[in-house]
Amino acid sequence: MSTIIKLDNVYRAYRMGSERIMAVNGISLDIEEGEICCLQGPSGSGKSTLLHMMAGLDKPSKGSIYIGKTRIETLNENQLALFRQRYVGFIFQSYYLIPTLTALENVSMPLTFCGIPKSKRIKIAKELLEAVGLKDRMKHKPAQMSGGQQQRVSIARAFSNNPKVVFADEPTGNLDTATTFEMMDLMTNMAKQRNQTLVIVTHDTEISSYASRIVRIRDGKIEKIENGRDMHDEKINA
Amino acid sequence: MKLVDLLFLSIKNLWRHKLRSLLTILGVMIGTCAIVIMLSLGIAMNRNFMTQVNQMGNIMQIQIYNYNSGGKTSDGKDIPKLDDKMVAELEKIKGVEGATPVLNISVKMIAGKYVGWLQIIGIKTSMFEALDIPIAQGRSLEDGDTNQMVIGTYVPNNFYNPKATRWEPAPADFNLMEEDTSITWDMSYGEKYADKTKSKNKLKPVKVEVVGMVGQTGREYDWSAVMPLETVKQYQKEIEKYNKQNNGSGGMIVYASGSSSSTDNGYQQVIVKAKTIDDVVPVMEAIKEYGYECYSPIQILEEMKKQSAGLRQILLGIGIMSFFIAAIGIANTMYMSIYERTREIGIFKVIGARLKDIKHLFMLEAGWIGVFGGMLGVGLSFLLSYLLNRFNIGLGSSVIWTPEGEQRLPSSYIPIWLALAGFGFSPVASLMAGLLPSRRAMKLSVMRALRQD
Cys-Cys with B170: which of A141, A230, B174, B388 at CB 3.0–4.6 Å? Predict the structure, then answer.
């Protein structure tokens, strides 16, 4: 397995009034291709900041981040947009769907930005929505769907451009326990089927049971790296 | 992102806020309409000047008067003789369609038992068309005509019976084209008081043929007859001979104007016809170079246009101001829209929208407002223009009198180019109004946009 994400001594400082806060304080980490990596820690530990930097939404104050062979902190906004189109999918805690578009349109939106013709992107979006179990919700708008259904749409969207890496920022934070497990099953299954790397940020310890590796973060530093129990695999094998 | 997707998405976004979009579009509509209507008033004013001036005489005809023939120009050059050679030279000036000398003689015309006084204008037959003399009956003059003439509408009204004891005008159905006609320079011909004894040289009238009647022009042609230049020249010589013989002998002296005998200083009047309206002024300047005086109704037109230029500028200014307010409305709507959709812009960026996609999306929204506003605005302009003309509200809207009676000139006129310019201008200006807001949307930081609630 090759390394897909490499963090090399990454720092991120924020200025709050006159105080300087180190949100990420010297983190080095390699993430392998096809891995399901869970960044876990209490709120304010810097795990979300780390995720944003890996996805190119934020830049480190110091250190470098490689995705494949690209140093993403050196890319400009347009290069980042193209990079996201090709390599990155996103899942957020509050779904971040476009309220005026239907499920189908939301899922095909990343493909629209890639310039893929309408018939092709509708086909891909339909397949994905079927895969997440929303075959009969395609024409619904986000407001007409439950939280779980919205998160399914958001998962379908994240996978629509067939990315190398999918980043999930507290993906189950707004969901009840039963739905949380459903979502985690769905995400990890889809990532595994396509040999895609999944990086999940969470403070929920139950979720870490799905991960192949758990990175515990506290005060902007790596506290501990554990190999996951990978309960999910065990369940399938059992 | 493909253009078709951008177009579709931008329309969809406008549709989200129907009322707000509609109000902005109405603003643009009023702005476009203001510009188009204000311009249409100015354009109508200029067109009306043209119509009015054209009534005074054809605007493309330049009259040359050779008052200071044989004299010098202000800078000391000799003014050349205005003869046939010179007329040929004038015809070679760029933008000149043709030129003809004009000769005038007064004669008495005889038709059956009636006689009438008549002014004959001699011009080159080839220039007949160029001088815009309309033919109402019969034919116009042609090359090869000699003693043929066309007469003005009012000419038959001059005829009377000189032998009658009481005043006896020619009957209403008197048609000179059907009579045997001839002319004489003896102005006392046929009159009872004519002193036959003193007249040494009995004049035989010259046969002429009336081949056509000129329609009403409002100009000198209504009261005159037009004949070929060469024929009139010949008549002039005869008149001179006759005058010499009768000088001091009591015969009636006939005056001939525009005399052209080879010994004098050339023609006194020449008409030059320009090819287009734009040629008139340059041609006039070229003629003035020679030292001749010249005149065209275009001078009045230019003067009128100059005097009304200020007014037209103020009108256009009001129009542009209205559109400016509409453009501010667009920018305001766009800023509001961006403020509301900050998070959406962030999401777009996260899922792979490029900077130019975001910019184009918002600019197109502004563009659509311009397209719809422009369309409605031009439509409203045509309606308003119709109403202004219908109820004759306007600036200096005027009335002219034509043979058909009183005619109202339109107070507003929208030419096709103005309508098209309205269609085109509105989206372009709207895009410009959308430029700054779009740049702002483009520059929004993703993280800040996503954190916004």
Answer: B174
The 10 Å CB-count burial string (b at 16+, else e) for B298-312 is bbbbeebbeebeeeb
> Quick check: B350 and A117 CB within 8 A?
no
Specify the CATH number of the domain A3-96+146-237.
Answer: 3.40.50.300
> Count of H helices and E strands in chain B?
10, 14
Share of chain B above pLDDT 70, in %: 88
ipTM comes to 0.90
What residue segments make up the domains of chain A, in order of their start? 3-96+146-237
Provide the residue range defining the domain that includes B84.
58-99+264-296
B42 and B66 fall within a common domain = no
For chain B, residues with pLDDT lower than 70 are 56-57, 67-76, 192-203, 246-265, 395-398, 401-405, 453
Which of B349, B310, B312 has the alpha carbon at shortest distance from B450? B349
Over residues A57-89, the pLDDT tens digits come to: 889 999 999 998 889 989 998 899 899 898 999
State the burial class of residue B88 (Cβ atoms within 10 Å of its Cβ: 0-12, 13-18, 19+): exposed
Q: Which two tokens stand for residue B288?
A: 């003035």
CA atoms A202, A205, A209, A212: torsion sign: positive
B351 touches chain A (CB under 8 A): yes
Closest-CA residue of A relative to B351 is A110
Q: Are B16 and A85 a contacting pair at CB < 8 A?
A: no
Q: Check A58 against B450: CB less than 8 A apart.
A: no
Q: Are residues B320 and B441 in the same domain?
A: yes
| Spatial separation of the C-alpha atoms in residues A170 and B370, rounded to whole Å | 43
A18 close to B (CB below 8 A): no
Q: Does B384 share its domain with B327?
A: yes
Count of the separate structural domains present in chain B: 3
